[in-house]
Amino acid sequence: MTEAPAQPRPAPGKRIAFALAVLMHVLLAIVLIYGISWQTEQPTTVAVDLVSAVPPAPTSAPTPPEPKPEPKPEPKPEPKPEPKPEPPKPNPKPPIKPDIAQKEKPKPEPKPEPKPDPFKEQLERELKEAEKRKATSEASNAAARELADLKAHQASAAQAGEIDKYIAAIRGKVRGNIVLPPDIKGNPEAQFEVTQLPSGDVLNVKLKKSSGNAAWDAATERAIHKSSPLPKPSKPELFSRTLTLTFRPQED
Question: How far, in whole angstroms, is CA 144 from its chain's centroid?
């Protein structure tokens, strides 16, 4: 017995296409049914009133004159309102005086005066007396300094006078021993430094400044040596070991 040949199975893609075709036909039928029912509805009526146009007036007829406006009657003046009576002013109440006796602040009691401190008063008196003594002492010291300065000035002046007398005595003795050289022109000055002993004996004679005339310089130096011992000062404290002596030919 021969077996019947097997029929071929439809492809799965054909089933999907068939289902989509059926779905599209159903949707198309719905759209057609909805469209027919929409068109069957009766349209609403619209009423329009037609008005005939007014015929134009003939141009040949004259235009009637415009009526003049009647004058308006003048308005009557409004009656002035009567002034309202002023309200009665209230009677001012008398000011209430505060109770001065109650509001016055109590006066502070006077502070007791401090009692004098005897130790403090004694200290103040001592300080004042010390200041007075200091002022008196300063004044007396100032007076003493002035007196001392005056005495020193007088002593210095007196000492200067004594020194001048001492130098003049030495120069006088030396001039008495100078042998004036001939042919001296002008009044040249020679200066010498003389070293002596307390007894007046001359130890050394040095020419410090030449007169420019050698004969006059030599004659003066010989006269100084010849004058030894030199005169002494009136007071020993005025003695000077080194003396500076100047000589000129035409001195008085």
Answer: 51
Closest CA to 217 of 244, 183, 247: 247
Please list the alpha-helical segments (H only) found in 40-114.
Answer: 100-103
Q: Which amino acid is at 158?
A: A
pLDDT digits (tens, 9 = 90+) for 53-111: 444 454 545 555 565 656 665 656 666 666 666 666 655 555 555 554 455 666 777 77
Q: Which strand (E) or helix (H) includes residue 40?
A: none
Q: Which of 169, 180, 178, 182 is nearest to 221 (CA)?
A: 178
Task: Work out the number of other CB atoms within 10 angstroms of the CB of residue 179.
Answer: 9
> Cα–Cα distance between 243 and 161 in angstroms, integer?
16
Q: List, in order, residues 6 or more apart from 177 with CB less than 8 Å away.
A: 222, 223, 224, 226, 227
Structure tokens at 21: 């075709």
Helix (H) or strand (E) holding 212: none
Going across the sheet that includes 242-247, the strands are 202-209, 190-196, 242-247
Cβ atoms of 203 and 171 within 8 Å: the answer is no
